[in-house]
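User: Teach me something about this protein's shape.
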Amino acid sequence: MILSVLPGSAMAELCSVQRPDWDGVPVTAIQETLSLASTPVVLILLLLSALAIRFKSQWGVLVLVVLWTILVSFLSIFAPNARTVGMMEGCIGSPALFIGIIAAICVGMIFYTAPPSKER
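Assistant: First, the predicted structure itself:
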């Protein structure tokens, strides 16, 4: 029973597949955020977010918030068990900081592109 909790060869293989350059030091939330932020999907979404903000497109922001939500849902809810095992092993960090930054970006985009109030 105790041996099943300890890292084994399956976990070592998982980390060598998911993070081949991992040096054995546990990954922090900041390192995981930088790792997630450098993926092509996130870079494309950031570029599209900048364009939606530049042109103040409410519909563009709506689509982007949905896309960001799908990405964050994949990381937190629909993540496979391999991510959980990798977090236990230490080769994958917590995505909480990344999710918080994305939530702040989405809220900021919504407020920035909101129509002006008519109470003036």
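Now, about its shape. Confidence is low (pLDDT under 50) at residues 1-6. The longest helix spans residues 58-76. If you'd like, I can walk through any region in more detail.
User: That's plenty for now, thanks!
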